[in-house]
Every structure is written in C-alpha cells, then in structure tokens.
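@channel sequence for tomorrow's demo:
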Amino acid sequence: MAKMFGLAGVLVFVAMSLGPVQSLKKGECEVCLSVLNRFKDTLSKEEASQPPKIEAAFKKYCKNLKTKEDRFCYFLGGTADAATGILGEMSKPMSWGMPAEKICEKLKKKDRQICELTYEKQIDFKTIDLKKLKVKDLKKILNDWDETCDGCLEKGDFIKRIEELKPKYVRDEL
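structure tokens (generated this afternoon):
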C-alpha cells in the first residue's frame, strides 16, 4: 500500500512539474508552421531521418527566403549571420517525424520571438478603396511591386500610378 502511495506521489509531482500544456492557438506561429511544412516537403527520406542532414538542408533552404521567413531562419540559426543556433531543437524532433505544430510549440518555449512572426495581410484589390488608404500604405504597395512613383507628391498621384500598374501585378481569378 505504501508503494502505491509513493508511486502516486511521484506521478503527481512529475505531472505538476511539467506545467500546463501550451498548445498553439489558431493563427499563432504562422511563419514557423509555413516554413517547416514547406521545408519538410523538400527532404528526401534519407535526409528526413538524420538531424545533421536536416540542419544542412535547412541552411541551404533558408538562403532563398525573404522577410519574415528569413527572420525565422535567423532565429533558428539557419542563416550565416545568425548569432545563436537552436537548429537541433528543430532537426531532432523533425527526424522523429514530429508534426510542425509540435516542433513550433517546442521552439516557442526556447524563443518566444519565433511565434511572434506573422505574415502581412494581403490587400484585396477587388474590394479595397485606394482613396481610404494612407500615403504610407500606397507607397508600400508600390515598393512591394518594386515600382517607383517619380514626381508623385500627392495621394492622387500615388493612386493614379497604382491604377496604371494594377493590370501588371493584380491577377483576376476565374
């Protein structure tokens, strides 16, 4: 009987020491989930089972990423300029076949910033009224398109330029 209480006490202690389970909320860690799922699809069966090969492939995969995804790679240590590296926290669980959601949960515990990365919301050009946007947002649209607006001084000038370029960059879905 004493052994049973001792075992039960140990189980209660272990359960309490683990703390609450932190599962991801909807929309949380979107960059992490996106990058890891796409990266996982690029791995061969041989690579997917060996952490060192996963890490090497991840560093190669990160070279072509931009903005938020590049930042994610930086946080993990997948870029050349990264100051720290927690690639092992990603590669080992991935080699075991752990889903990206669980890997991102583990990474979040190591570095909160990983799950704070979010994608910028895409503008729906069919419904947006450009006149209601700020000049800063209009400039950002042009910048995202790698276009300039030479001689634009007023909001109307930026709107006119965007309207001129819309057919080139905005696709109408069927």
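heads up for whoever presents: The chain has ten helices and no strands.
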